[in-house]
Amino acid sequence: MHQLPEVAATHVLLLLHQGHLTAAARLAEHHELPLSQARVHLARGDPPAALALLEPLRRRMAAKGWQNEQLKVMVMLSLALQAHGDNDAATHLLGDALELAEPGGFIRLFADEGLPMAHLLSKAAAHGMMPDYSRKLLAVCEAEQQKHPTTSCPPSAAHALIEPLSQRELEVLRLIAQGFSKQETGERLFLALDTVKGHNRKVFGKLQVQRRTEAVARARELGLM
């Protein structure tokens, strides 16, 4: 069925929130939606794939002078950089995006990204990057969390991860979510069992959980899956 790109992108987002990654990926690919495809890669714990799409896309949007589209890419690119562990680059890029967005009063563009964006906004504010605007956006997240406690938008960035998961830890987490045992995870990632156990301990510690089911639930709450 034919869908407008905006409608298809919204549908992809809904599918991702519901955990239907395969369906979301197919829809994003069918409609050739690079931003949505990047979202799918991030949901799968594959920031390098998201970056490979977003970095050239940002250059194309800048070359064409499509400021609003460039802004959307910058927001998503900052999240991808954060997921990849490039926190300084992510924070500075978000600062650039905030400067570009503030005159237009963009709110939903940032607030709809939930907890990962709140984490970045708190860092931007701490670095003095558009502090009034950053705090305003964080306040929107806080208000929405109070209205809808089950949403991914947090009351504050305090709920964000203090130490982000590494790429390898995200891979392990993704296999945990798929139900693979430690032995099976080691076989798929070509890791020794003791190494997998070490990654598990780090994942659980960073997520502040005790069990596999809690780790998966927490990861989804944080927008890591």
Given as residue ranges, the uncertain stretches (5+ residues, pLDDT < 50) are 150-160
Helix content: over 70%
Overall tally of structural domains: 3
Strand percentage lies at under 5%
The total of beta strands comes to 0
Order of helices and strands: HHHHHHHHHHHHH
Largest sheet: none
Q: Whole-number radius of gyration?
A: 18 Å
Figure out the total of helices: 13
- Class inferred from helices and paired strands: mainly alpha
N-end to C-end Cα span: 27 Å
The average pLDDT value, as a whole number, equals 84
Shape verdict: globular
Give keywords:
mainly alpha, 3 domains, 225 residues, single chain, 13 helices, Arc Repressor Mutant, subunit A
Element layout with pairings:
Elements: H1 5-17, H2 21-30, H3 34-43, H4 47-64, H5 67-83, H6 87-101, H7 108-111, H8 114-126, H9 131-147, H10 167-177, H11 182-189, H12 193-207, H13 212-221
Helix pairs in contact: 1-2, 1-3, 2-3, 3-4, 3-5, 4-5, 5-6, 6-8, 8-9, 10-12, 10-13, 11-12
How would you portray this structure in words?
By secondary structure, the chain is mainly alpha-helical. The chain folds into 3 domains: 1-45, no CATH class; 51-159; 167-221, Arc Repressor Mutant, subunit A (Orthogonal Bundle). It is built from 13 helices and no strands. It has helices at 5-17, 21-30, 34-43, 47-64, 67-83, 87-101, 108-111, 114-126, 131-147, 167-177, 182-189, 193-207, 212-221.
